[in-house]
Write a structure and sequence with these properties.
The structure holds three protein chains of three kinds.
Chain A: E1 7-9, E2 12-13, H1 14-38, H2 42-66, H3 73-95
Antiparallel strand pairs in A: 1-2
Helix pairs in contact in A: 1-2, 2-3
Chain B: H1 12-34, H2 38-58, H3 62-84, H4 101-116, H5 130-133, H6 138-149, H7 154-162, H8 164-184
Chain C: H1 13-29, H2 61-81, H3 90-108, H4 110-116, H5 119-142, H6 160-190, H7 208-226
Helix pairs in contact in C: 2-3, 3-4, 3-6, 5-6
Chain lengths: 101, 191, 227
Amino acid sequence: MSVVDAALVAGYTVGDFLLLAAAGFTVLAIGMLYRAVKGPTMQDRVLAVNVLGTNTVVILAILSAALSEPTFLDIALVYALLNFLMAIAISKFTVERGGVL
Amino acid sequence: MTVSGFASPVAAQVTAIEASLLAFVVLTALATALARDVLAAVIVFGAYSLGMAALYTFYRAPDVALTEAAISAGVTTVLLLLTLAKTTRIDHDAVFEEVNLPAAGAAGFLFAGLLLTMGDIPAIGSPDAPVWSNPDVTQWYLTETYAQTHVENTVMAVLAAFRGFDTFGEAVVVFAGGIAALIVLHREVFA
Amino acid sequence: MSDDVDDTDMTDTTTDAAADSEAGASADADSDLPPHRAAPRSGRLDSEERQGTPYTESQVIMPTVKIVAPFAFTFGLFITFHGSGSPGGGFQGGAIMAAVVFMIAFAFGIESTRDWLANTVVVALAVGGALAFAGIGLVPVALGGAFLQYDLLPIPILDPVKYGMEGVEVVGIAPIVSGVLMGLFFLLARGFNSEGSGFGNGSLGEDGSIDETGSLEEDAADAGGDR
């Protein structure tokens, strides 16, 4: 019986609240998606997808805690490392339409 | 594996995160298909992979989520951007493509037809689902993997040992993909 | 919208290099260039051969990649080697290690990375991985068993089944995936070779379209002959 399974309020465990928090972060990600799709300039989209990546890292970490699976943190680490790659790739691409690649 | 989410007295939280993740994935997929600018489509496709990785993680498929993370975030976006760098850009005023109504109708009919089969699909996480409860495949792998191969990751044991010949074929397919890219691009060396 | 540049012709690097070296020389004179277009540094051997890509000198990206790349590469190795006890395996680890090379290429210039990571390395990774996988599979066949029958592998002391699988993941799948992905990256960065000097169709004529149709017909004929 870990901390995640401890009951807090009215039968809701800590894990349930963590999952609820992850759902809240996902709703925020949908809000950020508006900027990624609409975003008048490419810089808006780059920033939006970078924030989305960071948001996903948080969601994955929360899921790892809520599901009591510590190995799921590997996925969050991979995303944290490769989201950086995606950000610099897109941002360098937008400088001169790939002229600097 | 613990199933703390499913065993909770109220399943509303599970539904909440599932619903929000699915909404995110469907919205990003639609935006990818409809985006007028190709670079915007590539960027939104990166966001789609973020949602899919979280969804796979939630459904406790960490190997698939890790593959999605490594391939989508690290490789696919970069390769698509490099390909885009070889193209010219056409200016668009509209954010979205105009929807082709016959194509949308055909996709809608396909979607409706698939939706009709939803009633026969067992619930996610149900212990009675055939993919989980059959004693000859899934349960056999889960019980026999450690005894026969001495590794803890059943997915890897299935890939490398029980289905090792298939994996060899997949590796050769990846290799052949590299050769095919050489031929298509009229090159003789990679670097 | 950053829709300013139509210069997508990446093939004529000589004219670009000449133009940019001129731009760098004039930057010393009147220095009215945009701030991201810094003059090429003198004294560096490769500063003129980098087709005048001033953005690769970014003071933010280069040190960050210098710090992040070793950790990311180590994590790729961890994913590969620890695939038997945690999520992951050769495919994912190889993809992460290839992504580290992409990261380095974006920070320090693709052409410099192409020179640093020679074609030999990429090909050796892909071909060596495929041969190693086939070799591990064929050793039990030589010893009278089935393909990939790990318990016949002649591994002393250690558990042959577990370490045979690890061998397939580490020296088989991971090098294939990372090598092929790096090769695809460099290939796509260089683009289509329109001069027709690719596989054996260079003598068909100087026109690219003629080459194209000729090679396609050859391929079709070959495919039909194989069947």
